[in-house]
Amino acid sequence: MNCEKVTGQKTGKTITPVLDVRGLGISFGMYAGGLAKSELTVMRSVMLKAFAGEIHAVVGASGSGKSLLAHAILGILPANARRFGDIFFCGEELTRELQEEYRGRRIALIPQSVGFLDPLMRVGKQVVGTLGTREAQRAAFERYALPSEAERMYPFQLSGGMARRVMVSTALMGRPELIVADEPTPGLSEELAEETMRWFRELADGGASILLITHDLELAMKHADRITVFYAGYTVESAPAADYAAGKSALRHPYTKALIDALPQNGFKPIPGTQPYACQAPGGCPFAERCGLRTGECAEDVGMRELRGGEVRCVHAD
Amino acid sequence: MHIFTVTIRMLILLIAVSALSFILIAKAPIDPLTAYIGTESTLSQEAKDEIAAHWGLNDSLPQRYFKWAGNVLRLDLGESITYKRPVAEVIGERFSHSVILMLLAWALSGILGFLLGMKSGSLQGRLPDRAIKTFCLLLQSTPVFWIGLLVLSLFAVKLGWFPIGMEAPIGKLAADVTAGDRIYHLILPVFTLTIVGMGKITLYTRRKYIETAGSDFVLFARARGETSRQMFTRHIMRNIALPAVTVQFASFSELFGGMALAETVFSYPGIGTATTAAALNGDVPLLLGTALIGALFVFAGNLTANILYGVFDPRLKEGGDYI
Fold first, then answer.
1. Are residues B47 and B189 in the same domain?
2. Could you read off the pLDDT of B26-49 as tens digits, one per residue?
3. Which of A84, A93, A264, A287 is the most exposed place for a label (fewest CB within 10 A)?
4. Is B227 in the same domain as B281?
């Protein structure tokens, strides 16, 4: 419980992040015909720090491994997955044992869809789970304006909005310092998405750190405090949301600048090429192939470095 | 309302089954008269004609069918030629033997198949799982009578552990036959039907286990701090057991068919051997009677499965109409 409930940027002094991911990578063991076993890398190197009281958005295209980041933090990767790199939680290395101890208590997951609820169990009982209480569940339902009848319903009877409230309620059965929300908004109307983000803001104001995993850069720009961008299994830039809102010049990485250009209000300007999967990413800078600033140095391994209050994985950024 | 529709459906089924059986038997190259009096009969042609007229054999097929159906409505299924007794009596006695056999095999194959499927699913891809899967696929593609013959030749002939057939020792007075004798004679047929019935439920449970254990809701349960044990008892078990029970009820038809063959192999005096005997002797009333009983039995199994779907699965229960 040594997490300080103060925002890093606001105080300026060095404080322990709730979540500190250092060089996280994930690969899967696969049988590639016969008995030959091959490793399929799906995440190369993820670096990010999430602080108490903040919403930290992780933005990436579909298939860039964002959900796996959530699963790696909670320790619920499939059996054939191998994780490398380190994850620290409140300054403590998050081992398998600690993950088992903390999940549902200090770390909570808010899943994507109603499919993550047991179809044969009534919603009330399910929200209580193994760690909560009826009182906590009723309080959570009241907080999110769920009718008391919802308790007796089965997941299939919930409307989209109710399902979202129910899933957020599950996080309140523990006292989570870190809440990982995996793609919480797709399929929701704009009002519902806004409402969901308000709930996250309330939870953050209550002292939790929210890791918001999304593919929606605009949503992240509007509601997050800090945004980390994924590219081909790497994090390429991590910076205050204000920098993204301020536009290209405030940003650091050529890919994030290109993302801003590709937004509708900036005229959908695309750049040539497609994002490779993490397993196909070339050595060195993953973005080099599509980058105008490319030089010989880009063929070597590029690490994340601090720059203007953010972090970037690019040798040319200034 | 439900009971009304169910009854209508059952009646339609019985009418269709009996009409079809009636046509098939009428068109079969069996002369009921010859079947009754025997080929060596010395009866005069006049006497034969009189019997034929009395039985209504000269009437048209629909006329004969409606006459039979009318009698059935008065609970008169006619007289069995083979056993020289009323059909209802024969079926009643035979069915009581078969019911024991079927219920035992049904319950055992259900329980064992379920447990084996769970084990297999939890060891997915490992050697025991692959062995169980192969075994079940083999069972599924093997005819019942052949397994019955194998079982018989191994346990009864070669090892001599069990009797070769019948429901009681040969040559023992019916009054002296003990419950122990009956159980002893039941073991091999029950064993055969059990392993035959197990394949389907094992494979079903296995597939369902893998599906459920890999489901998003079990993943989420784990993410919320549930232990493996809690995940199993709270989510996996329930999501598999309920559909498995309904599948087992729906397999009544296969059980009934398998039983007829197994009874023949083991000379077990149940409804299956009675059907075979009726067919071989051109015993039309008995054949029609067993067809009706068989249809009723399978209908009851399917109906139970349908009702259970609704009882167990809230998506159907709260939805309302499930029969």
1. no
2. 787 777 777 777 777 777 888 888
3. A264
4. yes
